[in-house]
From TrEMBL:
Keywords: Isomerase. Belongs to the UDP-N-acetylglucosamine 2-epimerase family. Residues 25-365 form the UDP-N-acetylglucosamine 2-epimerase domain. Its EC number is 5.1.3.14. SUPFAM superfamilies: UDP-Glycosyltransferase/glycogen phosphorylase. It comes from Desulfoplanes formicivorans. Transmembrane segments: none annotated. Coiled coil: none annotated. This is UDP-N-acetylglucosamine 2-epimerase (non-hydrolyzing). InterPro entries: UDP_GlcNAc_Epimerase_2_dom, WecB-like. It is an enzyme of class 5 (isomerase). One of its GO terms (molecular function) is UDP-N-acetylglucosamine 2-epimerase activity. It comes from the Bacteria.
Amino acid sequence: MRTPLIAMVVGTRPEAIKMAPLCQAMATDSRLQFSLISTGQHRSQLDQVFERFNLTPDIDLDLMNKTSNLNELSGRVLQEMDGILENVSPDMLLVQGDTTTAFAAGLAAFQKGIPVGHVEAGLRSGDIMNPYPEEANRRFISLFASLNFAPTEHARQKLLAENVRDDIIVVTGNTVVDALNTIAGRITGLPESVKRLVTLGRRLILVTAHRRESWGKPMEHICRAIDTIVTTFPATEVVFPVHKNPAVRDVVFPILAGHERIHLIEPLDYFDFISTMKYADLVLSDSGGVQEEAPTFETPVLIMRENTERPEVFDTGKAALVGTDTEEIIRQATRHLAWDGGHSAWKTGNPFGDGKASERIVKAILAWHEGKKPYLTPQESFSPNTTITTK
């Protein structure tokens, strides 16, 4: 049987991080070939990830520019991917998550009769506008995907509720845990760029906020909460890598700049960000990926969103949904920072994966190519293994 050629497309940092371990798994498996395509949706951040994981795209489209809006980007991806897919002629195109790159590239493949594999399928918030445009993107992809790699059983159930066929869904775990495992052993402390800012012995709060839903008044509410938290707890310091988007910076800097215990810094590369997360006492974030990463290090996270498509994070006992309401953020942060650490049972283990998601995806693709069902048996599928410990 001919060796299958699998094309993979990425455009943003989270996509690249989550596809990197899958690229590495395919590179060491002689039973298939792969081609990595980059749209360049987030140019500088993509390059950092490629360097960190020693990856070089086979095709680099560099489609994003400073004036691109979602429609312009979608149109460019569709147009360029049409020619790329014609030339590469893959047996399957893998897309990851819910970005504009994932949706437009997947649609281009579908319209050319090329099967689409959706990595991280089945995440749903239930609100088409939140997160925007991600909720719509991932729902659309599920309509035409030939293989759905659901990270968890919860995600599988969401797909089944939308009448996606059970035989084209496999539960693999999330590849972000695979990515974490490749670097976790190299983390020996805070990165130097952060270490020189903070005072030893103070409690460290890591903040990220960048989503469209957080722009404007919600971002202002977040910043007011951070200012109050640091003022209330003098033994705390905040590290806030501020996104380069003016919609974020134009709100964050006027409110928080100048506070001696709030450090507004440039975005960290993946390794430095994960290292900071590992040693943080608390994370405040509107990121989806952070919800998946924090449980690996047992780092509590306050989710600054109105809803989450990752409810498994609550199984850890270390997460709370706080929205962007100033008082609720303060209340939940106070609850954590005032806790003495001696009276609560927490679950350990990451409910999103065990580091073997890429291995399962490769196995399922090979079974699909050979026409063997099920693509993964129940015993081969991911199932979380969490245990109770007293902290």
